[in-house]
From TrEMBL:
Keywords: Repeat, WD repeat. One of its GO terms (cellular component) is histone methyltransferase complex. Signal peptide: none annotated. It comes from the Eukaryota. It holds the Pfam family WD40. It comes from Ephemerocybe angulata. The keyword Repeat applies. This is WD40 repeat-like protein. WD repeats lie at residues 1-41, 43-84, 86-127, 129-170, 172-213, 215-256, 258-299, 302-343, 345-386, 388-429, 431-472, 474-515, 517-558.
Amino acid sequence: MVHPARVDSIAYSPNGRRIASASKDGAIRIWDSQTGMPVSEPLRGHTGTVWAVVYSPDGRYIASGSADETIRLWDAQTGMPALQPFTGHDDIVSSVAYSPNGRYVVSGSVDGTVRVWDAQTGRAAFGPITGHTDTVRSVAYSPDGKHIVSGSYDSAVRIWDARTGRAAVGPMAGHTQKVNSVAFSPDGTFVVSCSEDKTVQIWDARTGQAVSERLEGHTAAVVSVGYSPDGKCIATGSGDNTIRLWDAQMDRPASNSAAGHSATIWGIAYSPDGKFLASGSGDGTVRVWDPQTGDLSFPPIQMDNNTPVHSIAYSPDGEYFVSGSEDGTVRLWHAHTGQPASNAMSGHTRIVYSVAFSPDGSTIVSCSGDKTIQLWNARTGEPRGEPLTGHTDEVNAVAWSPDGKYLVSGGDDNTVRVWDLTGSQRALEPMAGHTDVVLSVAYSPDGRHIASGSGDKTIRLWDAETRQPVGKPITGHIQSVKTIVYSPDGSCIASGSNDYTIRLWNAQTGEPLSSPIIGHGAPVTSVAFSPTGDRIASGSRDTTVRIWKLPQEKSTQMPRTRPTLDVPVYLHDYPHGVYTIGSDGWIRNSAGHLLLWVPYTHHTGLYSSASLERIIGNIATTKVELTKAVAHGENWLKCRDTPSRGEAHRYGPWPV
């Protein structure tokens, strides 16, 4: 396949049988991909170098962009022009791409703009998209057609709303020189870019954050990049005359990591049958997982404008789940498809912090930073009556009594309140005792008790009928208690805290049932028991969901405590004993001898407990295996000498 001049762009047809190539000679040529022979005369019409060429999704048309400042559409079978040239750019058209449905073409230009065109008429769909300050060298649509990514000589990558042209994400800054090519991953979760700086960068398409270190290896500018159809590999071409293949999942966790959240997980909930686990996050998505495999049940549900999701709850029959968002809306979704089940429920004027279904599934309750609690008809989405008022500050949590006759709530006014839904006097006398904000509340399964967790680091138990305290405050957490939940049988309370731990408590006595469950690398923001009560799911600011298997017989006594700064670590099939990983990154045995240093970047993904069953998230997971370890001499122990504070900041921990 030979052009008489430089080839600047090539594209496969969707069925893989044809290749279109564009050249400096202004012509487009179509080749048989099996034989390499031309299948038609060159497509001529452009009066300058053709910089970009692409097939339509159905393979019927070819779009091209040229130095003559136009985009042209060609009939792929006949080679004839399909429409008049698209005009509007003021300089070279350097990139073109089709939308997944074939209705639109997007173009990037040396004039610094991105433009979207109606592929049926050749007219601009809306005004030029501006934001880049230099040549737009590459453009691409997301697989769902909702977004456009662009890469520019201004070193930035940007994502735009494909329907309006408004900025959606970015600019993503990381490259130090011109960006030559960009592409979405097949699932739309990531964007990859390559640059004159000789590197490749992978970005989270929803947050714009880099999800890995830059991929380095080329010795000259990287000029083209793309994902394999299965998303497992990235291919790059470079001015160093090499093509390289990269493992696209090299920095992802073991289980479907591409699907992980990219911001704090504020709410999690098991489906009533335990087959699904839903999570809501600050990244503006709701995701539903198979807790056995860690795989997504369907693509993430993306909120409008990437609005953070603060709470989530399943209906009693498992057919729906409800979410509460930072924009003040409550939304209902079909649990098995993720499709909207009704229009957004609007009424709150600030963040919706908590949502819950009534035990009969007919009503949804929500509470908000606007100091109110609202009831909604779960079938129609209409409000049931006026908002419940009484809290004097933000309402952080709300829960139903098992019989559906009462609500309990907790707020920034340091109080717990019970609401009688059967009579005219709905607001009962507040329950005072906490000395800081109340962040979480829960009814016991038998309805006799209420538990509350607070910024004062305590959990309190209350008699649900008299609303008087039961026993002394439960202490143990060293920071705010962010979330609490009763086990299905009511015997246990699980709590999650800003101290990064989950703790289990005897629901009758308030005594701890085990040592703290440690593993999250940031505050624990949500916990949920599985319906069978043998597992706990937790969500955290570290962006991971973790599933923990609980012992069949929970101890009634605390095991021996460990040093505060050390985290217990599970060493697979290693001689029994107590092993910890310290804040310095060293794994030690019970005698304090050093076994292994774990890099800090691997701490969050470390399987640090035999009870930790699964980590779901965009992190590298780490398991320690020392079955073939050998004993070291006395010199090894000298590694325990730690650097001074100044040396640690300057050089990091001592290497082994």
